[in-house]
Structures are given as structure tokens and as C-alpha cells.
TrEMBL record:
Keywords: Isoprene biosynthesis, Magnesium, Metal-binding, Transferase. One of its GO terms (cellular component) is cytoplasm. Its EC number is 2.5.1.10. Its cofactor is Mg(2+). InterPro entries: Isoprenoid_synthase_dom_sf, Polyprenyl_synt, Polyprenyl_synt_CS, Prenyl_diphosphate_synthase. It comes from the Bacteria. This is Farnesyl diphosphate synthase. It is an enzyme of class 2 (transferase). The keyword Signal does not apply.
Length: 307
């Protein structure tokens, strides 16, 4: 199967997993579960669960031979609950990021934000519940493989915690207050706000597929560079956005005077940096076993994307 056919197939797997593993909208309190499902099921590229599923498949197909050679004992399991858990966590961060106390956005994934569709308190609780659900899913679905369950919990909590996702968001808010945010500030923000979450997608897939510690390190390297390339491309798209055709949020960061890669380094250097990080991500992936065609094409499509 080629990339163009595999990508929608992975997306369907992710969508079906989300629909199945998230409580029904009729579950009491219905308003809360409706809001959670509204935020989760209304679009999005599903990049994170696709990365997790594809990474797990890579190792499962390669047979994880190093795991048998070394003393490392791997537990192999279906990656879908982990993939769904990470998408729940990502969606919680978007719901909270859109709140009036943060970005105060009206639109997300082409629809009214959760607090505009429901109300602020419901959106806050829906975000809290999605974050908690991520860990409920890991606890429930990996109970039979305790070492894997512990590793997934540790990795996902670490990526979402005060030194990574939430820390990156805090530094982002602080950077908005100061006129002289530096390249180091920007790198801290994006390594933690964007790259940590993309990295944990690869690592969770690797854990479910039986990757060895050395292979997990390669996935961490790939995730770090993919995250930075993804964010630089985001900044380039924002800076070059045509608000007339892309909608009212296009060019938002540039207009808000936020520190971005383009503002600090200019368009050409930003493009060069995006290429360098993409190449570094691909080089790390190349060291993994098995057929990397899909993951390589996915990284290429994300870092060369036009929207
Ligand atoms: C509130 C704890 C907390 C964190 C918020 C996710 C986030 C941190 C802020 C959203 C703004 C932003 C530009 C974050 C960088 C990561 C990023 C590009 C997120 C959007 O991811 P996509 O493009 O979104 O994969 P979809 O909707 O396709 O899932």
C-alpha cells in the first residue's frame, strides 16, 4: 500500500478508536461528554495517533529482533488505546489554549471553539476530563502488561507535565509579555509545547511495538527534530498566510507581534532551519529496523506542508 492510501487508513483507525474509547454523549453528565466528543471528534489531522500507530506497526513488522538479542524484555500490545490517549491529551491542550484566559479563540478545527459552542466552565471541565481520560485509558488497556503500562504512563505524563507541554505554554505566555524573547526562549517553548508531544507519539508507538531502549532514543531524536521542523513550518505558514483565503486565524501570530522563527531569523533562514531539522528527523528514523517508507513520507508531508 502506498502513502496516499495508508494515510487515510490510519486516520480511519484513529477515528474509530476515538469514537469507541471515549464515553458516549449520553453518559451522565451528558453535557460534559457532549463537549468532550465535540472537541475530539470534529476534525483535526490526527497526526499524533497516526504517528503512534505507524511506529508500533514498524516494530511489530520488523519483529523487534534486538529485543531478543539484548536482555531487554519487551511487552508488545495494541497501540490504539495509547494513540487515542495522546489525542485526548492533545485535544485538552487545544481546548484550554482557546479559552478566554489564554488565546481567546473563536474557531478551532474549522468550527466554533468548545467554549463558544458550550460555555467557558463546560470547556474547562471537558479539557480536564480529556486529560484525565488519557490516563484512564492507559491504566485500563495496558493492565495486562504492567511494565508497558508503567512506561506509557511515565512517558505521557512527562510529555504533558510542567516541564514540557504545560511548561512550554507557560513560557509562551511569559514571552508574550516581553519585547526581547530570544532564540533560546523560542526553542524552549517549541521543544516543550510542540516537540515533546510529537516525541511521545513515537515513543509510545515504539513501546507498544517492543522497541529497545536504544531504538527509543532514536525515536526521541526523530521526535525532537520533527517537532521543531513542524513548528518552524507553522511559523512560515503563519507569516506567509493569505487571510482572505485561509480564514481569520491565518497570520494570527505574525499580526499579534508574537516572537516566531520568521521574526527572529527571517523567511529564508527559517526555511533552511526547517530543512535541517527535517533531515535530522529522517536520519534518526533511517537507523530504525524495518520498512520506514510510511513514516518517512509522513515526516516529509508534515514538514513540507502548505496548510
Ligand atoms: C493549554 C496546557 C496547554 C497547552 C496548550 C497545544 C497548545 C499548548 C497550544 C496550541 C497552539 C499551538 C500552535 C501549539 C503548537 C502545537 C501545534 C501546532 C498544535 C496544533 O496541532 P495540529 O496542527 O492540530 O496537529 P490538529 O487540529 O490537526 O490536531
Amino acid at each position: 500500500m502506498d502513502f496516499a492510501a495508508q494515510l487515510p487508513a490510519y486516520r480511519v483507525r484513529a477515528e474509530q478508536g476515538l469514537d469507541r474509547l471515549v464515553p458516549a454523549a449520553t453518559t451522565r453528565p451528558a453535557r460534559l461528554h457532549e463537549a468532550m466528543r465535540y472537541a475530539l471528534l470534529g476534525g483535526g489531522k490526527r497526526l499524533r495517533p497516526i504517528l503512534t500507530l505507524a511506529t508500533a506497526d514498524l516494530f511489530a513488522r520488523a519483529g523487534a529482533p534486538e529485543a531478543q538479542i539484548s536482555n531487554f524484555k519487551s511487552e508488545i500490545a495494541d497501540a490504539l488505546p495509547a494513540a487515542v490517549a495522546i489525542e485526548c491529551l492533545h485535544t485538552y491542550s487545544l481546548v484550554h489554549d482557546d479559552l478566554p484566559c489564554m488565546d481567546d479563540d473563536d474557531l478551532r478545527r474549522g468550527r466554533p471553539t468548545t467554549h463558544r459552542q458550550f460555555d467557558e466552565a463546560t470547556a474547562l471541565l471537558a479539557g480536564d476530563a480529556l486529560l484525565t481520560l488519557a490516563f484512564q485509558l492507559v491504566g485500563q488497556h495496558y493492565a495486562a502488561t504492567p511494565a508497558l503500562c508503567a512506561a506509557l504512563t511515565r512517558e505521557i505524563a512527562d510529555a504533558a507535565g510542567s516541564e514540557k507541554l504545560i511548561g512550554g505554554q507557560m513560557e509562551d505566555l511569559l514571552a508574550e509579555q516581553k519585547a526581547d524573547a530570544t532564540a533560546a526562549d523560542l526553542e524552549f517553548i517549541h521543544l516543550n509545547k510542540t516537540a515533546a508531544m510529537l516525541t511521545v507519539c513515537l515513543v509510545a508507538g515504539g513501546l507498544c511495538g517492543g522497541a529497545t531502549p536504544a531504538q527509543l532514543d532514536r525515536l526521541r531524536t526523530a521526535g525532537r527534530h520533527l517537532g521543531l521542523a513542524f513548528q518552524i513550518v507553522d511559523d512560515i505558514l503563519d507569516a506567509t498566510a493569505d487571510t482572505a483565503t485561509l480564514g481569520k486565524t491565518a497570520g494570527k501570530d505574525a499580526q499579534a507581534g508574537k516572537t516566531t522563527y520568521v521574526k527572529l531569523h527571517g523567511l529564508e533562514t527559517s526555511r533552511q532551519l526547517a530543512r535541517e531539522h527535517t533531515d535530522a528527523a529522517l536520519a534518526a528514523l533511517a537507523l530504525l529496523p524495518g520498512d520506514k517508507t510510511f513514516l518517512t513520507a509522513l515526516v516529509g508531508s508534515l514538514t513540507g506542508r502548505t496548510s
